[in-house]
Amino acid sequence: MKKRKRLDLVSMVVKEHDIHTKAEIVDYIEQHFGIRYSLATISRDLNELKIYKMPAEHQQRCYRQYNENAQKEAKERLIKLYQEDIVSLIIKDTYLIIKTSPGFAQTVNYYIDQLDLKEVIGTVGGNDTILVITQSNELSKFVHYKLFGQTYEASHVAR
Predict the structure, then answer these.
(1) CA-to-CA distance for 12 and 9, rounded, in angstroms?
(2) Which tens digits make up the pLDDT trace of 95-138?
């Protein structure tokens, strides 16, 4: 099978099914089309197609194709999560500490990373806490504004 057809096949499998592992893609293609590909080939195809593991329902992560409107959607999701699942937020020196409902930190962290803010040096997410690192206190407040559309002073009270 030519590469273009293989890419179309991988894209179709991911669009039509909830795929959680690369091995599921390999197995599906082998079962339904009788073609066996290596995990390395599928991995390269996923990168070329811009298909990544993304948060889905029930805190599971599924492979989905990257959407060109991802940053806009990420911002909208962050604002919704800010209203519903972020318990508290503290800015201390060069970092933000975001406390979420149990199990939501990874999802919030994912959407922060999707925004690809140049002011953010990095993020670390656990089960219910995220650390967002910047270079200064002023940048931390600016990042807060870019993430949630509010100034820190107006919104830093724990809910």
Answers:
(1) 5
(2) 999 999 898 898 899 889 888 899 999 999 999 999 999 999 99
Sign of the torsion formed by the C-alpha atoms of 69, 149, 61 and 38: positive
> Is 51 exposed, middle or buried (CB count within 10 Å of its CB: 0-12, 13-18, 19+)?
buried
Amino acid making up residue 138: E
Both tokens assigned to 19: 């795929």
Buried residues in 122-151 as b, exposed as e (16+ CB within 10 A): ebebeebbbebbbeeeebbbbbbebbbeee
Please state, rounded to an integer, the average pLDDT across all residues of the chain. 86
Locus of tokens 């989905």: 64
Tokens of 85: 């699942």
Stated pTM of the model: 0.58
Q: Transcribe 41-107 into DSSP letters.
A: HHHHHHHHHTEEEEE-GGG-EEEEEPPTTHHHHHHHHHHHHHHHTEEEEEEETTEEEEEESTT-HHH
Q: How far apart are the first and last CA of the chain?
A: 56
Q: What are phi and psi of 122, to 5 degrees?
A: -175, 170
Other residues' Cβ atoms within 10 Å of the Cβ of residue 25 = 24
